[in-house]
């Protein structure tokens, strides 16, 4: 069978278009009349090889350059504006394709248009690009298609993506300070052990006396670093590679993500931001009409923490067995009493989406406060750590000089 593209008008006189399979155009016309559509134009669709060639080009472009979250946000906002203004999807995609300055995104939009032209729904076309559109994004678009609220769905997706971007930026900003301090401390330790302590070791060698234990330990560690730095560098690289390979395994990623939630100070930020993402995503799902089980399933894919994903899947399994959301939330052990009370109220009143938005807002405010006070919480720990390092260095270097001074005075 061949594929034919058609244009026509329905019983209300509205213009419709799409594709159908048939042996000839006359058969397509009969199918359209049965559907209540008066055909205006019927023509053979583009060949499969041409479509496949363009899809191949799109996939090649998608491999060459990554589509940034900001571009996806703008796409969602522009689709909302165009659809709200009554612009057909095909024309909206064509306009966005012409105005796009990113070749990768242009190829993606071309592939979406080809998919729609071949008879696919928009959600099915988006599902062909899982690296760009998450399962949550596709599910939201699918619900928007079913409910006829696709324009509002794109606006909600824009707000969701904006929230995700803001959360990631806050977490990155929160972790930047401690990471910089730790890197600076590591560089300082390397410089001291390679350049400073060997210079003092030459001086101490002229004392011809037994050095204090602290000094001998410092000199021994410094000598080991100077003589075996290639081995240490190789071990460090091997450790990094081994760690990355370990966290790429299912069990390794689970344990590492669980450990991140238990890190002092930083762990609180990670878990609260993850729960805020979970609550907002689930609230959007409820508000858009996604069934709760499907909502929990797609939200589990949005959360970028394997440990939290397992807890959400635990909630989903409990709901499938007929348990309440409150009971499954208690069983996870990750929600505090205030959140559990809000979930209970949401179940009683039937306003789960509103209560989930409240929970998300509460966690967002907590994250914002934790990020603002992060420097104040970390500074005492960093000062104590630096003080201990300076004390060890000072005792190791100055104790021999102190002993030499006392010996000279006794003479």
Q: What is the CA-CA span between the terminal residues? A: 110 Å
From the alpha carbons, calculate the radius of gyration and give it in angstroms: 31 Å
SSE order: EEHEHHHHHHHHHHHHHHHHH
Question: What's the β-strand tally?
Answer: 3
Low-confidence runs (pLDDT<50, min 5 residues)? Answer: 47-55, 57-64, 407-411
Q: If you had to describe this structure to a student in words, what would you say it looks like?
A:
With 411 residues, this protein is mainly alpha-helical. The protein contains 18 helices and 3 strands. It has a 3-stranded antiparallel sheet, with helices on one face. Helix 2 (48-64) packs antiparallel against helix 5 (103-117), helix 8 (150-205) runs antiparallel to helix 12 (266-288) and helix 12 (266-288) runs antiparallel to helix 13. The longest helix has 56 residues, at 150-205. The N and C termini lie far apart (110 Å). Residues 47-55, 57-64 and 407-411 have low confidence and may be disordered.
List keywords for this structure.
411 residues, mainly alpha, three-stranded antiparallel β-sheet, 18 helices, elongated, disordered C terminus
Provide a quick synopsis of the model.
With 411 residues, this protein is mainly α. Helix content is 78%, strand content 6%. Strand 1 (2-9) and strand 2 form a beta hairpin.
């Amino acid at each position: 069978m061949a594929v034919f593209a058609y244009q026509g008008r329905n019983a209300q006189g509205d213009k419709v278009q799409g594709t159908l399979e048939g042996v000839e155009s006359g058969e397509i016309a009969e199918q359209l009349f049965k559907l209540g559509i008066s055909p205006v134009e019927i023509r053979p669709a583009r060949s499969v090889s041409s479509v496949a060639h363009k899809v191949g080009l799109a996939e090649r472009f998608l491999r060459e350059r990554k589509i940034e979250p900001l571009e996806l946000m703008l796409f969602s906002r522009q689709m909302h504006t165009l659809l709200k203004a009554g612009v057909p999807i095909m024309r909206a995609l064509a306009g966005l394709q012409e105005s796009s300055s990113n070749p990768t995104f242009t190829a993606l939009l071309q592939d979406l248009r080809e998919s729609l032209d071949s008879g696919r729904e928009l959600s099915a076309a988006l599902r062909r690009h899982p690296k760009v559109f998450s399962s949550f994004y596709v599910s939201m678009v699918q619900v928007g298609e079913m409910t006829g609220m696709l324009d509002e769905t794109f606006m909600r997706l824009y707000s969701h993506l904006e929230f995700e971007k803001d959360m990631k930026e806050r977490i990155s900003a929160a972790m930047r300070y401690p990471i910089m301090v730790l890197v600076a401390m590591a560089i300082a330790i390397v410089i001291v052990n390679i350049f400073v302590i060997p210079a003092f070791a030459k001086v101490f060698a002229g004392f011809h006396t037994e050095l204090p234990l602290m000094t001998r330990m410092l000199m021994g560690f410094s000598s080991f670093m100077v003589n075996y730095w290639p081995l240490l560098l190789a071990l460090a690289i091997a450790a990094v590679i081994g760690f990355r390979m370990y966290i790429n395994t299912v069990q390794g990623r689970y344990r590492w993500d669980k450990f991140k939630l238990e890190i002092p100070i930083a762990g609180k930020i990670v878990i609260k931001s993850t729960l805020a993402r979970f609550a907002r995503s689930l609230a959007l799902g409820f508000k858009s009409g996604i069934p709760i089980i499907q909502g929990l399933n797609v939200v589990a894919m949005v959360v970028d923490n394997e440990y939290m994903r397992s807890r959400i899947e635990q909630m989903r399994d409990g709901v499938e067995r007929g348990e309440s959301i409150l009971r499954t939330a208690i069983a996870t052990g990750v929600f505090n009493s205030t959140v559990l009370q809000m979930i209970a109220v949401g179940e009683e009143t039937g306003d789960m989406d509103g209560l989930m938005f409240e929970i998300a807002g509460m966690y967002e405010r907590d994250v914002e406060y934790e990020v603002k006070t992060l420097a104040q919480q970390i500074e005492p720990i960093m000062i104590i750590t630096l003080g201990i390092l300076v004390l060890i260095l000072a005792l190791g270097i100055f104790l021999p000089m102190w002993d030499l001074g006392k010996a000279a005075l006794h003479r």
